[in-house]
Amino acid sequence: MTLRTTLGAALACAALGVFALGCGDTRPTFRPQPDTGVTDLGSGDATACADDLQLCAGNCVNVLRDTQNCGDCGQRCGENQMCIQGVCQNECPPNQTRCGKVCINTNTNNDHCGMCGRACAQGLVCAMGRCELECGASLARCEASSAASADAGARDTGVTTPGFVCADTQNDERNCGGCGTACPGGQICEEGRCVAYCPPGQMACTGQCVTLATSRNHCGRCGNACTATQRCTGGTCVELDCPSGTRRCGERCIDVTSDASNCGACGTVCASPSFCLLGTCTTQCPTDRTACGGRCVDVQTDPAACGNCMTACAAGQVCVRGMCALTCPTGSVVCTNRCVETSTDRANCGACGTACGAGELCAGGRCVAACASSQTLCAGTCVDRQTNPAHCGACGLSCGAGFACVAGVCRPFGSTMVPTCAAPSLQCGNRCVDPRTDNLNCGTCGTACAGDRLCENGACVAFCATGQDRCGGTCTDVRSDATNCGACGNRCMTGLSCVDGECRMEATFRINSLDTTNCVSVDHNALTGDDRGPIAASANRVFVTGDGPLFAATTVRFNSSDLMGGAGIMGGYDLMTEDVTTGTVYVLLNAMGASPTSLSGQVITQLATLDDTGALSTARITLSRGVTLGATVGIFGGPNRIVLHTGTRWVQIRLPSGLVEDVGPMTATAPTHSFCESSIWGGVAEFFNSQLHVVYVTNSTTISRYRVSDANISTVGMFTGLSDACNLTVVRATNRWYFHHEGSSQFATGAENLVSCSAALATP
Q1: Is 531 helix (H, G, I), strand (E, B) or coil?
Q2: Do the domain assignments include residue 223?
Q3: What rounded mean pLDDT belongs to the chain?
């Protein structure tokens, strides 16, 4: 088994006296290994050491490079780490090659000339990766330092370290720009100058490594600080947005039309007992408003006093008819903290704040003249439905050529008698037809639909796909459409979603924090062998899958409370996850009832539950349609759902019905994430503020949240070392989070580690 590279950032922080969860921009910079050959330990029994060496356990060692005494005596680096400038690290800087546990310039290193382990014989020096008698024109002949000699240690028989080295003064930090000019700690040599070195994606600013794309103090370039009212986005300082109808006063967004401390303008205070009404201080609220804490509010629409002065809606909610809701109803938008339909609202016609004048109505988002009592507004125009042939008897019902509208009924020209056909039927020839559904007279007499079309609401339309119904001229799945839930026109109330054809309150869930406290871990290498990546958890068990002792996928279970009781189960499952609401573990299966380990092209058609003993249920949940997988798959367990990234787009599977729904854009590239050996990545699905999110491991220091609707990414947690973690899960019953990694992290050291720590999980 080969261990992947693991982080040593936790040891790096400790070496500098930084013990917080994340070192942030103050973490130590990364200095390369010098060009001379080194080993881990010095030698000799001297009690006095050269200036650049330190006495540790009777040996003179270079604590800037010794992995057993890194930064100080006894400070050991992790199994797969190097000691670089007194800090345990994992990667070499540019132009350096890792040889064992040191970073080497193989162009000039006498012990590793051209490749690791190839030493130059006595009297020869390493010049451009070859052992030569002289350094050559592009290199300088420089004396080796005492630390370099002490670090050289044991060598192959017959080989001794020369008293000088060939130095590339353009990038040798011990001879930068010339022999003997050494760069200080935390710097490397570039083009003959000592400069600070930062990991890829960061830049040194005022002695710190920062990310210019997001740093508020160094936004886009060093020293460019954003103000208190700005944030750094993409290397540009942008003003923090305030909701529509509010104004920024200091660092808060204020509705100056009703705030007694900022009435009409920031800082204008209404003296008690005055209230702020429409931006003016007054002593009495109108009859449709209620006095609440110095404000006149509409308790039917105000989220800060919804229904009464004491009830405030949670963040992201709105107040609809005196009740807090997650979102405005479909077709409504938020205008000055209340939900309005801009297609019909006279005060917000077409857009927030656009008011219609006296005698006008709002129709289709446009202000139009109010209709007379004998007329009706149809498509933005006042018409008489008794005589208008384009709107005969009802808006949009056209009589067609050769017919007139008489008393709200279409009849042939020249006829003096009103037909007996009752509206909305038409007399076409000698019979009455319903032009909304008649394929031979669709919309008007004589308009016939083609053979592959159907007359729906007076228009010839294509047939809908299996599992869909046509509502208002559009094919929709009434099992999940909140505007046509279970049947066309059945709109779910605000705050409800359509689940399996019923209007229900969505199960909400989010992760508030993933902590580093009360952690436990177990090395499961003996049970699973090398890891594959998948992990899932019920209320009582955590399941981890590895390659198995015999190199066949093997799943092992542990107690979710303490990670004890490790035992193998009958099977090995890559495609497994959980419903975080019920704590039920599910395995995704193909049409053959198998859980595939090779993903590309596989079609998932059913689910099975995995009980706490590890037994797969014989009962199956059949998916409403198959889900085709790509070469890599993201899998996320959420509240009453499983969310998948198939490789090209996002879908969710409702639980326990198995209804498959497309979510997010039609095509969506997966965000940057850590990969598992099984080509699976994933984590936890969240649903809050009416939005679907997924939480996943971005890299060895970051766990992120991705909003599926618009690909917005935010940070859930920053860590000093997650090693090669590629998946995570949570258990609501224990308020803990779980993940796997190889080697060393800030949490554990071992071959194959399962880790669990406390978490703050919420149902907002």
Answers
A1: strand
A2: no
A3: 78
The CATH number covering residue 752 comes to: 2.115.10
2 CB contacts (<8 Å, ≥6 apart)? none
698-702 LR contacts (CB < 8 Å, sep 24+): 698/671, 698/672, 698/673, 698/674, 699/672, 699/674, 700/6, 700/7, 700/9, 700/674, 700/724, 700/725, 701/7, 701/9, 701/22
Q: Note whether residue 454 is domain-resident.
A: yes
Convert 694-726 to b/e letters by CB count within 10 Å (16 or more is b): bbbbbebbbbbbbbbeeeeeeebbebbbbbbbb
Q: In this structure, are 153 and 100 located in the same domain?
A: yes
Whether the Cβ atoms of residue 55 and residue 41 lie closer than 8 Å to each other? no
pLDDT digits (tens, 9 = 90+) for 62-117: 877 788 887 678 777 877 777 776 667 777 776 788 888 788 888 888 889 988 98
574 and 498 within one domain: no
The answer for residues whose C-beta is within 8 angstroms of residue 14's C-beta and 6 or more apart is none
Q: Please name the residue that has the structure tokens 């969860």.
A: 21
Judge if 445 and 489 occupy the same domain. Answer: no
Is the model's pLDDT at 303 over the cut of 60?
yes
Identity at 758, one-letter amino acid code: S
Per DSSP, the three-state class of 510 is strand
Residue 609 lies in a domain: yes
698 shares a domain with 558: yes
pTM for the whole structure:
0.44
The Cα 7–Cα 14 span in angstroms is 13
d(CA 122, CA 109): 14
Residue 703 neighbours by CB under 8 Å, 6+ apart: 514, 683, 695, 696, 697, 715, 716, 717, 719, 722, 728
Distance CA 696, CA 691 (A): 16
Contacts of 547 (CB under 8 A, 6+ apart): 528, 529, 530, 531, 532, 553, 554, 677
Of 125, 154, 180, the residue that ends a domain is 180
Question: Residue 732 is encoded by which pair of tokens?
Answer: 């609501």
Question: Looking at the structure, do residues 459 and 484 belong to the same domain, yes or no?
Answer: no
Co-location of 396 and 483 in the same domain = no
Q: How far is CA 408 from CA 311, 391, 395, 588, in A?
A: 51, 9, 11, 59
In angstroms, rounded to a whole number, what is the distance separating the alpha carbons of residues 369 and 346? 12
Residues facing 606 on adjacent strands:
589, 622
148 φ, ψ (degrees, to nearest 5): -65, -40
Whether residue 428 is found in the same domain as residue 498: no
Whether 251 is covered by a domain: the verdict is: no
Same domain flag for 545 and 562 = yes
Q: Tokens 């649903």 — which residue?
A: 687
Number of domain units in the chain: 4
Distance CA 290, CA 409 (A): 50
Amino acid 52: pLDDT:
66
Q: Which domain holds residue 757?
A: 510-762
**Which pair of structure tokens corresponds to residue 115?**
């490749």
- Which of 163, 180, 197 represents a domain boundary (last residue)? 180
Q: Cα(536)–Cα(558) distance, rounded to whole angstroms?
A: 11
